[in-house]
Specification:
There is one protein chain. The chain has 469 residues and is mostly helical. The chain has two domains: 183 residues, no CATH class; 264 residues, no CATH class. It has 13 helices and five strands.
Length: 469
């Protein structure tokens, strides 16, 4: 059946049918796959009836006693007198509804509800499951259980429409999912999770870019934020009750600074300022969790990309994948995204994009070893197969983990994003705290003039090279 096959005012009721079937079957997650029916229970049930007419007569006999006690019905145990999330819906089901469902299943002799998808929809056992699902749906819907989902009571007695809807969902849509799972276990769940992650990344990109635009962030930031593939995905951690932020292998340490944008958005929300914000709690794990997304966005500023990821590409790709005429981040990205009156704010962040790139591009080209594209032999597969992702630790500093403290959180403390996976050998940027500034001041003064001269020479060379390419 297609959407146009349903009456328009039945569509919300159709969702109720789907949710009720999921509830009975225990398919509470969006990525759930129908479980196979227990062959022993199916055999026990079918042994009681010779054909479908005998079963129908038994089911219609109001005085028929069930062969299964309510206490033996192993379903809906967690849904009593409360709410349970089924797919995308939070189903509120009271204790009376659960008792009725158990009693009706017991009467039919069904210990565990779940069609046998190795058989057709008209088998005795599958007919019993369909009858149980539709009868219990009509009963609990009449008591208002699905009012919050806009169940249309106009269709409460339209059993024929319920049967067609049931058969389409169970023996067409869910059977295709079941058959795919039998052929390749875990494949469907992986596809659904990837799709959900992609949707969440798109939502995150929209919220961040909308916020950045409303607050007048530099265009170089907005150009990155509007790209869905520039944002990390996340994974639910049931123990920590939060979403674990994953690490994109192609994104640089500087690019990871946008993790702090969530904090900025939350601060605006807490202050009563209208701002888009993520409802879910996202946290950085102490040990990076690599993302399964590997398709990097194209034509973003050069310093968005991990230089070690980039240097594993062919030289032509290194020059074409990023925009090597632009940079987006401060040399010290920790000083990004602060209010202009905050001591941590770097005034250089407010420079116009073309001036910003003109100032910092030479150093970035040098850092990425792209200041002389003609020397191709120096760019081929640097460290192929040896380096980890840009944000992963490569070396063990010899410290021994304190295993005696199991209560230690595996996540970084709130706001502790400053050293987001910067390894010793892949330190793209100087990351210093306030306590380091005094120690380095004299050293910086010593080579300042020499560095300015070298930077000017590199810039002239880079501009000439970029013009040639």
């Amino acid at each position: 059946m297609f959407l146009e096959d349903y009456p328009e005012d039945f569509l919300s009721t159709k969702d109720c049918v789907f949710a009720h079937i999921r509830l009975l079957w225990g398919m509470i997650e969006t990525a759930s796959v129908p479980p196979a029916a227990n062959p022993e229970l199916v055999q026990q049930f079918c042994a009681r009836f010779t054909d479908i007419s005998q079963f129908n007569a038994f089911a219609e006999e109001s005085a028929a006693s069930g062969s299964v006690a309510d206490s033996d019905i192993s379903m809906l145990q967690d849904a009593r007198a409360g709410a349970i999330k089924v797919g995308k819906h939070l189903v509120h089901i009271d204790d009376n509804a659960v008792r009725y469902i158990h009693a009706y299943l017991g009467k039919l002799g069904i210990r565990v509800w779940g069609p046998n998808l190795f058989e057709g929809p008209e088998s005795i056992y599958n007919s019993a499951c369909r009858m149980a699902a539709i009868n219990t749906l009509q009963q609990v819907a009449s008591s208002g259980v699905y009012n919050f989902m806009n169940f249309n009571r106009k269709y409460l007695t339209e059993t024929g429409l319920f049967i067609r809807t049931y058969n389409h969902f169970v023996h067409h849509l869910l059977k295709k999912r079941f058959d795919a799972e039998v052929k390749n276990p875990g494949a469907y769940q992986a596809v659904v999770l990837a799709k959900n992650s992609g949707t969440n990344r798109s939502r995150l990109a929209f919220e961040r870019q909308t916020f950045a635009s409303s607050k007048g962030f530099p265009r170089r930031y907005q150009d990155i934020l509007k790209e869905t593939n520039a944002h990390s995905d996340d994974e639910w951690d049931p123990e920590a009750k939060c979403w674990t932020i994953k690490t994109l292998g192609y994104r640089s340490t500087a690019g990871n600074i946008f993790t702090r944008l969530d904090e900025v958005m939350q601060n605006s929300k807490a202050a009563g300022v209208s701002a888009a914000s993520r409802k879910r709690i996202r946290r950085l794990p102490k040990e990076p969790v690599l993302s399964s997304f590997t398709k990097a966005p194209k034509s973003l500023a050069l310093d968005f990309y991990s230089r070690h990821w980039l240097q594993k590409l062919q030289i032509t790709e290194q020059l074409s994948h990023p925009d090597i005429t632009k940079v987006a981040f401060l040399p010290d990205p920790i000083r990004s995204l602060w209010p202009t009156n905050n001591p941590a704010h770097d005034p250089l962040e407010t420079m116009k994009d073309n001036q910003f790139s003109k100032k910092f591009l030479p150093d970035i080209l040098e850092l990425y070893n792209l200041s002389d594209p003609a020397r191709k032999e120096e760019f081929q597969h640097v460290g192929d197969g040896e380096e980890l992702a840009d944000d992963e630790e490569e070396e063990n500093d010899g410290s021994v983990e304190d295993v005696a403290e199991p209560v230690e959180s595996p996540y970084l403390a709130e706001g502790d994003w400053v050293n987001h996976y910067i390894s010793e050998s892949e330190d793209d940027y100087d990351v210093e705290g306030p306590e380091d500034a005094g120690e380095d001041e004299e050293e910086e003064e010593d080579y300042k003039e020499e560095e300015d001269e070298a930077r000017a020479r590199r810039y002239d060379e880079a501009v000439e090279d970029n013009t040639m390419t």
